[in-house]
Amino acid sequence: MPYELGIKDLHVTVDGKEILKGVDLTVRQGEIHAIMGPNGSGKSTLAYTIMGHPRYKVTQGDILLNGESMIGLSADKRARKGVFLAFQYPVTVSGVSLLSFLRAAYDAVKSEGRAGKGVPFLEFKRLLDEKLKLLEVDSSFVNRYLNEGFSGGEKKRCEILQLAVLQPKIAVLDETDSGLDIDALKIVAEGVNRLAGPDLGVTLITHYQRILRYITPHRVHVLVDGKLAMSGGHELADELEEKGYGWLRSGG
Questions:
Q1: Euclidean distance between the first and the last CA atom of the chain, given in angstroms as a whole number
Q2: What domains sit in the chain, N to C, each tagged with a CATH number?
Q3: How far is the C-alpha of 200 from the C-alpha of 207, rounded, in Å?
Q4: CA 248/CA 151 separation, integer angstroms
Q5: Which long-range contacts (CB under 8 A, 24 or more apart) does 136-141 make?
Q6: Nearest CA among 55, 46, 52 for reference residue 23
Q7: What is the DSSP letter of 146?
Q8: How far is CA 52 from the centre of its chain?
Q9: Over the chain, what is the mean pLDDT?
């Protein structure tokens, strides 16, 4: 049976203000779901809540992975269970190479059950080389400090490489197209398409339709004022591009 992320009647507050007001969503391995919506609709709140950010308080509902609640689990425990979040604004860490960062992250997620020992370096290096080849990323890329001096496209490529190495069951990509020019957008989309498959479920959160010209989702959901206002196939994204979001607020 494929892994399944189930979001049930999810209500979330941030600093005492209710942002999500009853969201229901199911994402399975092998599926790509796009979540669209205007600014302030709750898209990033949904992403951070799925990953367990402590600032986002679940007041009602549940987040389930294969039927087991993740409410109360820290972000690192959710990662070990196979959930991944790509941030809209990746952080820069000077003095830490991408190689070191990826190995530490891989150890943290995959070394459970190895009596506290990390994954052997050669085992990790074989995996990393495989993913670099898959994504057509030059091996010198991992010797650079994490996001230091990276262009917008390089930062996003870095996150796609993290996704490839960590091999989660469910990935949430929070506005991964934000601030990218067309060439960078195509690079990121190609990376997602290469990783998509029966072992990965993707929730792609975006404000604009343009990335969906390169990544074809199985389902498109529209989040407005903290609720899912509509769901449909890929053609729904085209309709939103034409009409905007105002018609959903007014009831169509």
A1: 38
A2: 4-249 (3.40.50.300)
A3: 22
A4: 35
A5: 137/161, 141/98
A6: 46
A7: E
A8: 13
A9: 91
